[in-house]
Backbone:
């Protein structure tokens, strides 16, 4: 298992195992110490110990915990049985997408991503799905091919058997959306109709056109980026692979007929065939070159590209450079990318001056609508009564359907004090509701507590178990101020009798490195928190904890993590685990432990290149990042607690309802936040419930030990 600590899955424990666990502790204090130590050491006996009779006598709440564990295990087995029937139905109806979705859920419930994907019964399903996907692709049915290869890619995430197929279809879909968004819109609408749903409204051209997006691209920008990548990329990807990837991307571009709507040159079959043949010939020649390629090979490839384009399809060179550059950098890693001129110009427009917002988090749903995730408490949108699930149908009277989130944010934000009118479509309400909001400075708070006590983001009850003195802090992201917000909450809890703390880093995608280091310093008084190493294994930077800043050295801590915990959150969780400052509960983290550096591509700053140049390493020397071909990545929890998709959905919904106070269009209070207590008392959140039980055991054991000490 590499550096991973031995863990034991809660859902893998059967009811009989829980009921017949041997007694390993003689008395309450010894039992409590055994539970905590087994969790801290990751030796796999935590749940067995938690369900001993000694524990039930000491902590009555453990009987409910045991019952919930048995119920979850029974639900898991029942769901696996249901999935077997659903798989048979999907295969009988040749619904390959549904079959793969069923397999993904089975894979998650069984907890063996590598072995599951290679089982003969699973492989027969995936092989047939891959055959169908390739048939779709051969027939230019890009969307169903893309969906199938996406599912296959996730199913084979470890061995990456379908990565190239997924990457190719991703490129094709992205190109259609970039050059011919109306055509992609029509394709999505046609599929909705075929599925018995309503067609999308007429297409609304919004955001910059492809010509605006590629304006200013120059050959030297791409060449400079590839040269920089050959020198500094962490995995030292050969120039050969980048050049072949660039030519392959252009082949995808030339063989996507939908692009002819924007690039009419691609409608000439003779020219396209000539172009593709010459692309393939150059890619083959480059792949066959012996030895390590040099910078002049990059310059020569760019000249060859210009020549064969002029002699065949004669596409706008900026468009070719855009796709060649993206295809080349796709060979590096998922985090290296270009900042093209239009991207930088848009960023500058949004940040210059006093640009502020209205306080809503938005996403683009499957119907290409702008959907409100949630309003931020205390902001203009929150006070006006905008709700989660609302659809932003208009911005300043202009239809917003099809508008990407970046363009929408650009239109909604503006100078503080200015106003913007949003036309909101709400379920159960006819027509649109107009909200005129005054933009304001939006202060984002990263730290949230257990139960909301007011509308301000500072109004939290931080105790999940007041009687036992167990606190709870959720960090959504490592924003500026995250450490100070956390420290303030800890100081408040310590004044009220803090005996144990749960730090919830689930779904925390990362943020600022300095905030992660400073936050780890609240738990670790001194020592290395994280190092950065380059491709040669040379340490480029060391981040250390500074003495005198730790607030929780002697207080037991549980950190919750899952697959949504990435980057900075993995640094914090891993450092606390290495120093023995916390017990980690949940599932393996995402595995994003790489450092990106921005390099300008011209003197005027019109374009830049983001390149992965280093990896983060933890104090023990562990590598966080999921490197190519690795089956071990991220941070493995000390106590693994897996949750079914339905359980995760229920827990997230209850947590979301507990965080939001609902108002109407006039700002009048409609409903207070929901009580979050069932997350623990009813086991709605099994990971959180486990964390609470562990800390209750530790706190009660320490209390008894102190009482019995003469």
Residues:
């Amino acid at each position: 298992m590499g550096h991973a600590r031995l863990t034991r899955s809660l859902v893998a424990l059967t009811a009989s195992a829980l009921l017949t666990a041997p007694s390993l502790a003689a008395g309450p204090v010894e039992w409590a110490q055994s539970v905590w130590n087994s969790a801290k050491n990751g030796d796999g006996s935590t749940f067995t110990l938690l369900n001993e009779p000694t524990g039930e006598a000491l902590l009555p709440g453990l009987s409910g915990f045991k019952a919930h564990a048995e119920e979850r295990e029974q639900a898991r087995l029942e769901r696996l049985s249901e999935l077997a029937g659903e798989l048979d139905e999907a295969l009988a109806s040749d619904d390959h997408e549904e079959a793969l979705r069923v397999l993904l859920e089975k894979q998650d419930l069984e907890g063996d991503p590598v072995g599951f994907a290679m089982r003969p019964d699973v492989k027969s399903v995936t092989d047939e799905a891959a055959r169908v996907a390739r048939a779709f692709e051969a027939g230019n049915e890009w969307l169903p091919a893309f969906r199938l290869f996406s599912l296959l890619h996730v199913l084979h995430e470890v061995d990456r058997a379908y990565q190239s197929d997924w990457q190719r279809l991703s490129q094709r879909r992205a190109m259609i959306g970039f050059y011919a968004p109306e055509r992609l819109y029509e394709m999505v609408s046609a599929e909705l109709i075929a599925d018995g749903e309503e067609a999308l409204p007429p297409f609304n051209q919004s955001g910059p056109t492809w010509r605006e997006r590629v304006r200013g691209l120059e050959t030297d920008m791409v060449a400079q980026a590839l040269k920089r990548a050959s020198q500094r990329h962490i995995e030292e990807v050969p120039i050969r692979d980048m050049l072949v990837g660039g030519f392959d991307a252009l082949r995808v571009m030339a063989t996507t007929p939908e692009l002819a709507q924007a690039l009419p040159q691609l409608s000439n079959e003779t020219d396209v065939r000539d172009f593709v043949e010459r692309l393939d010939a150059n890619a083959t020649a480059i792949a066959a070159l012996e030895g390590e390629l040099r910078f002049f090979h990059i310059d020569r490839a760019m000249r060859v590209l210009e020549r064969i384009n002029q002699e065949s399809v004669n596409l706008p060179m900026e468009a070719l450079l855009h796709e060649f550059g993206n295809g080349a950098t796709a060979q590096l890693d998922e985090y290296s990318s270009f900042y093209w001129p239009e991207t930088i110009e848009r960023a500058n427009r949004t940040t210059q001056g006093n640009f502020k917002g209205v306080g809503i988090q938005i996403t683009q749903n499957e119907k290409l609508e702008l959907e409100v995730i949630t309003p931020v408490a205390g902001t203009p949108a929150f006070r006006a009564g905008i709700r989660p699930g609302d659809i932003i149908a208009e911005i300043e009277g202009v239809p917003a359907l099809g508008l990407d989130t970046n363009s929408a944010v650009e239109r909604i934000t503006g100078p503080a004090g200015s106003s913007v009118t949003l036309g909101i479509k709400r379920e159960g309400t006819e027509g649109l509701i107009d909200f005129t909001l005054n933009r304001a400075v939006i202060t984002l708070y990263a730290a949230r507590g257990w139960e909301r006590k007011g509308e301000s983001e500072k109004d939290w009850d931080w105790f999940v178990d007041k009687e036992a003195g167990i606190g709870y802090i959720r960090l959504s992201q490592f924003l500026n101020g995250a450490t100070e917000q956390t420290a303030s909450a800890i100081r408040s809890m310590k004044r009220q009798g803090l005996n144990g703390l749960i730090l919830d880093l689930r779904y925390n995608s990362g943020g600022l490195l300095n905030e992660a280091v400073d936050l780890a310093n609240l738990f670790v008084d001194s020592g290395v928190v994280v190092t950065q190493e380059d491709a040669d294994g040379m340490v480029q930077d060391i981040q250390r904890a500074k003495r005198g800043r730790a607030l929780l050295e002697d207080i037991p801590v549980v950190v919750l993590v899952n697959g949504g915990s990435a980057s900075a959150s993995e640094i914090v969780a891993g450092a606390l685990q290495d120093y023995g400052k916390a017990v980690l509960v949940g599932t393996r983290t995402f595995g994003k432990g790489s450092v990106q550096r921005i390099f300008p591509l011209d003197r005027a700053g019109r374009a830049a290149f983001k390149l992965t140049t280093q990896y983060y390493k933890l104090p023990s020397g562990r590598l966080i990042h999921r490197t190519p071909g690795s089956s071990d990545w991220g941070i493995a929890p000390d106590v693994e607690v897996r949750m079914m998709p339905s359980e995760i959905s229920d827990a997230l919904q209850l947590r979301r309802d507990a965080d939001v106070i609902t108002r109407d269009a006039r700002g009048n209070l409609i409903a207070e936040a929901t009580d979050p207590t069932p997350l623990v008392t009813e086991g709605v959140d099994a990971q959180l419930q486990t964390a609470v039980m562990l800390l209750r055991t530790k706190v009660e054991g320490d209390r008894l030990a102190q009482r019995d000490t003469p």
Q: What stands out?
A: The longest helix spans residues 61-92. The CA atoms of residues 525 and 550 lie 5 Å apart.
